[in-house]
Each structure stands twice: as C-alpha cells, then as structure tokens.
Amino acid sequence: MLMEVITTAKYGLISDRRSYGWILTTTIGPFFLMAPFVLMAESLVGPGGRFNEPFFEATGYSNYLGWLIIPLIALNTMNTVFSNVSQSLHAQKTFGTLERILVSMQYPSSLLIGRCISHGTFLLWFVGVLAGLSFLFLGLEVNVNAVSAVVVIAGHLLAVYGMAFAFASMFLWIEDAFIVQTALSRVVFGLFTGATFPLSIYPDWVEWLARLIPFTWAFDLERRAFLLAEPLPSIAPDLSILLGLTLVWWIIGYGCFRIMLNYSKRKGRLGIY
Amino acid sequence: MIEIHDLRKVFTQNVGKTSIWRKMIGRPETTDLVAIDGLSLDIREGEFFSLLGPNGAGKTSTVKILCTLLLPDGGSCRVAGMDVVRNAREIRRLIGVSIRGERSVYWRLTGRQNLEYFASLYGIRGSAARTRVEEVSRVVGLADRIDDYVERYSMGMKQRLAIGASLVHRPTILMLDEPTIGLDPHGARALRSLIKEELCEKEGVTVLYTTHYMQEADDMSDRVAIIHHGKKVAEGTPSEMRARAGDNRVVEMEVGADGGRGIAALNEHPMVERVLSVREEANTSYVRLRTKEPLRSVGQLSLEERMSGVDVRSVNLVQPTLEDAFISLTGSSISDTGDVE
What we know:
The structure holds two protein chains of two kinds. In chain A, 79% of the residues lie in helices and 0% in strands. The mean pLDDT of chain A is 84. Chain A is globular and about 60 Å long. Chain A is built from eleven helices and no strands. In chain B, helix 7 links the parallel strand 7 and strand 8. The longest helix of chain B is centred in the middle third of the chain and has 18 residues.
C-alpha cells in the first residue's frame, strides 16, 4: 500500500507541475479574501475601536491581528486541501480515469492518501506566501515557540487530511458535493470553530459542539504557539485532545470512503463520464 | 477461465426531473432498469470471446462486474477460479482492463509516464519497469511517440496506450470494452490486429471483448455471445451463429426504387420470413431477407415478385452474416452508433 501511495503522489506531482496558473490563483486569491476581513477587524477591535476592550476580555489576546490572521491562514489552507483532494476524485470520476485506477490499485484508499501527499508539498508554498503577504501588508506580528508550532501544525494537517478523506467520499455519493463541502468548510469551520469569532460569544451548546471539531482545538493551539510562544508541555493536554479527534476523523474519513466506494460499486456510479 | 452463472444486475434510475426536496428526503421517483438478467457464460483459457449486443444490452455492466468495479445483485462470477466479490483484490492482479479506452489514461502525462505509473501500481519498478514499458510501447505501436504528452495523441493512439496500460503487468486475462469506438477504419484495423495477433495468438492472453460491430466480432472471435436486454440470446462460434440465420435462406435482392411498395410486398410474400435489412443507393434498394424454407433456386422468388409488379433486378443467395443472425434472433438490428433499430 505504501508504494501505491508514493506512486500516486509522485505522478500527481508530475501532472500538477505542468501548469502553474492554479498556484498563483489559489495563493493570491485567498489573500484578497482575507485582507478586507482583517482591515474591517482592525477598525472594530483595533486601538480606539468600539470592540477593542470586549475583544480583549473575551479572548485574552492583545495581538488582535495575530489572533485573526493565524487561523485565517490555516482556514484558507484547509479549504485548498479540501478542494484539491475532492476535486482530484471528482475530476477522475467525470473524466473516466477513476475506474481504471481503481482496477489497477490493490488498496483504493491509496488514491486519496497519495493525492493528499502530493498536494501537501504545495501547502508549503501556499502557507509561506500567505504568511509573507500578511507580514508585509497586514502588519502581522508573532511570538513563536518553534517546537510547539511544528507539532501543532502537524497535528492540524493530519486532522485536515482525515476530514478531506470524508469530504472526498461525499463525491462518490452525491454527484455535485461541492456545495456541501463549501458550506461545511467555509461556513461551519469559518464561523463556529473560533477562527473568526471567540467561541464565548455563542450559546453554550454551540461551544460544546464546536469542541467536537478538531479545528477548534487546532486554531486555539496555533494561537498559543505562534502568538504566546507557549512551550510544548504547556499545550500538551489540549494537543492530545486534538490528536485524539484527528484519529477519530481519520477513522470516520476512511470508513466513509469504504462505505461510499461500495455504494458506488453497487449503484454503478464510479464513472459519470 | 471466466465463469458467469445466472448473473443479475439491476440499476435504479430516477424518473424525469427530480426535485431537490425529493432528493433530500431520499424519495425520488425511480424505476428499475434490469441491465443483466440471468446471464451465464463460460469463457475458456486462451480464447477470444466477444460479447455482442447493442447499447444498453448489458455488455459494459458485465465487464465491470468481472473487473470488480460493479457489484452484482445476483448470481455468481468467477475469474480464474476466484469469486469477483470475495477475491476482488487477487482478481485485479490477474486482469488487464480497458473501459472507455482513451479516457482511461492521464492526458496530462506522457505515454511513458502513464505506462510507468500503471507498472508501478502493479509492483514493477526501476529497470524492470523501463524494460517492460519499452516492450509494451513497441507492441502497441507507440514507441516513437511514447515521450509525447497523451493530450497530443490521436484517439487511436490513446486507445492503444490504454490497452498498453492494461498490459504492463502481463495479465493473463484482458477485458476490452468497445475499444474501437470512434476510431477511423485504419486505426480500428490496426487495433484489432494488435489484440488478435499480438496478444491473443502470440501471448496466449484470454480476451473478453465487447462490441456492437458485427463484422468485428465475426472476424476476431473464437466464440461469440449475443446479448440483448441483459439476456443471452445465443452463444457459439461465429460460423455456428451465422448458421442460425439459415443456410440457403438469406437472399439479397436488388429492387428498383418504388417508394417502398416493393419492400412492403416482400414483407407480405408467403416465402419470406423477415426482411433483414434495406440499403438504399440512388434509385436502387438492396434488400436482404430470410426465407421461411431453404431455397432450391432463387428463380421462383424473382419470378413471383416480377409478376406482382415489383421491379426485381437481381436476386442472389448470400452467405448469412452475424448481423443476419442477430436480426433473426432478436428481431432488431444495430445501427453504427450501437443503438437498436
């Protein structure tokens, strides 16, 4: 299975390498989506803003720009992962290569894991550019504990790919699952994980549900690692919850993929060309 | 090598427009479409076996079940003695498959990268992969274009590459679903020659081939099964199948164009069982028909037609074709696009 994953990742990269336009689009685009949001926040919670003090009371962070930009970069990164992994499955399904590749593979899940890995190499570029632009144009300031940051990012990415697995599986079930994926990834994860608003402004039950989403923990941990430079032992309890939820999502994602693959084989929906 | 027993597959299709609300509550109006209805086949080792039938007959569904892409609803399928549901992984190792040929390869990769990719998925890597890719590219006639991007290939070249990709791991069974669709006559001939001579005869690969082209099945197959509406109508060698149309019972008549009156009269003729096909050219109709009894001479038919005012120019007893057999057996013919006429 490992070799199937590596092979898929390798040829995914070779194929993606042929055009660079999408790299520019998916890098500059999210920045311009993010920038107005940050500028608006600056006028509301920045020095002299109406919500400056309430914001500090709710979050405990004085670095309001960092508080917002760090998870926004992560949120945009998540969206590009979900889109890419789902799109790779959807495109193969509509083009006709999905059936062929599934006949050739011994372990169908290698296809998605391989795509995750090939896309992962692009993430370095994506995050790097978004962070660089944020430093240059949005005045982002950080106070990082490198070890904590690396570990938290790794845990976050694992959770993202676990959920990407589940999202991609939807495309085996629903012909056009992009609307569901967009609603979840942009609305639910954007609004109800503490990425853009403090969870404390929501009713208790919303906060309770939000705590079941691994990204709620990931965003909080990233803020603590990147803005407060908290060392690893300090974030370890919450980190273990993140990793536990990540494991749960990988199991759910893999289970969904198996179930949906069988469903597609039963219904004859592996190809819609 | 391939045993199919009482195979059944039913698809559920939505009827008409389905509202989003009906989809959401999971109750769209549906109807059952029986794709395969009690199909049984036994394909022997080293055999070139064709599944012949119009679009929607159940050919592709049968192949997809055999290559583990579709789950059957009933019956059993065994490939090399293994069950397609329980031993799917082992079966995938043994078979080479080309479904929707030209669209089953990656157009953004080169031909070589495609072959190396598929070889690698079957555990062939390094120098072994390079050697095998060279061999396969020669066999499928792409050696001089193997480093070009597939998007620059002609359709025939893409089809050949797709077949090459299904050969890289030296499968003992090859399943090809309508590989010559969309190819020009020259490309189709080259592909048929590759499959029949290079793969089946030289390498001894067992080939399951689906097509709606009668002549193709007639020329290439050791045995043929005609399927229609998911059911097997007949099975045998091409000559056995042709014999079903009846020796000395198929006649081709050249009739002067008279607005179809002559053809209508032929349909009513007491000696005629069925008009098999009509081909119009300029002011002449070429009518192929099957008589009720074997003919001792064609003179009687010709004379009687002339007497009834039909302008019969010539009558010839001809060898029945697979198409004649198909029409005799199913009562319908297949158009060039594969649809039932």
